[in-house]
Amino acid sequence: MTENTQLKQKKYGRPDDERIIPFMKISLPAAVISIILTVASIFFIATKGLNLGLDFTGGVSAELNYSQPVKASDVNAALAKAGFKDSVVQTLGSNRDLMVRMPVQENAEAADLTKEITTAVQLPGNKAEVHKVDVVGGQVGNELYVRSGGAVALAMLLMLVYVTIRFEFKLALGAVLSLLHDVLVTVGVFAMMQWPFDLTVLAAILALLGFSLNDNIVVSDRIRENFRKIRGAEPLEIVNIALTETLRRTIHTSATLLLVVLAMMFLGGDGLHWFSVAMFIGVFVGTYSSIYIGTAFALWRGLNRQDFIVQVKPEFEEENEIPR
């Protein structure tokens, strides 16, 4: 075997010609950016608020079926002509099945609404049937909004417990901070742009929590493994090695998810549009935060090899051998 075909001497278990990307070199500027994004998001949420959808504010929803394909704009115009203001029309998989949402109609029973909506949505040469009319009161919508916030908080608390048990508290706290950052930034963008925030967007937020946590777990697992097998390296070097080794997996996972999200955004219709928009924002934010918030925070808190080594209690240590 010639010298050219021989493996080069390895450093920390890696060939010398394999580059280690110094991710943590820009951890301080990244932390400043994260703080600015978080503060800006809180500012927009506090000042402009969320453009809550009918799922949270209460309203009326109705499912329509037309005999022939129809445009949502034509149905919306017909409803406006009949006196139904601020209605939102979405397709349900085809151009014949639609869903109509509108604010709560005062002094109107469900039976009366069904008749009025059925009359309003009839188009020339295109008969419409109303299959289902649901009325959600404002109090119910407000309770749903409060419970949704509680569900997000409970999810992050359980994730903190899970990562603490499986890895280490410093990594767990960093992971939860990155999840909180992802939620605040994504919701902050919706508040700044005044995009509709409904149950589909909330579902995207919960899905992003799972995606971001999975990314944090993969990185944390590699960090723990490297701390145990690499000797003589500084924590900063071990973290950079772990991030470099998981970079390809992170790129593949994020790129695959983005392809699905883009397909939903452009081909999924109005019902999936805002869900896919929230996911699109969250994929970028979550990938960034798992590196520069979750991992960087744990390193700042003094993450070291001793955090992953099982310490032998004194009572289990071998005593000196008794002379015969």
TrEMBL record:
One of its GO terms (biological process) is protein targeting. GO terms for molecular function: protein-transporting ATPase activity. One of its GO terms (cellular component) is plasma membrane. Pfam families: Sec_GG, SecD_SecF_C. InterPro entries: SecD/SecF_arch_bac, SecD/SecF_bac, SecD/SecF_CS, SecD_SecF_C, SecD_SecF_C_bact, SecF_bac. SUPFAM superfamilies: Multidrug efflux transporter AcrB transmembrane domain (SSF82866). It is found in: Cell membrane. It is a multi-pass membrane protein. The chain crosses the membrane at residues 20-46, 144-165, 172-193, 199-219, 250-268, 274-300. Residues 125-300 form the Protein export membrane protein SecD/SecF C-terminal domain. Keywords: Cell membrane, Membrane, Protein transport, Translocation, Transmembrane, Transmembrane helix, Transport. Part of the Sec protein translocase complex. Interacts with the SecYEG preprotein conducting channel. SecDF uses the proton motive force (PMF) to complete protein translocation after the ATP-dependent function of SecA. Belongs to the SecD/SecF family. SecF subfamily. Forms a complex with SecD. Part of the essential Sec protein translocation apparatus which comprises SecA, SecYEG and auxiliary proteins SecDF-YajC and YidC. HAMAP family: SecF_B. NCBIfam families: 2A0604s01, transloc_SecF. This is Protein-export membrane protein SecF.
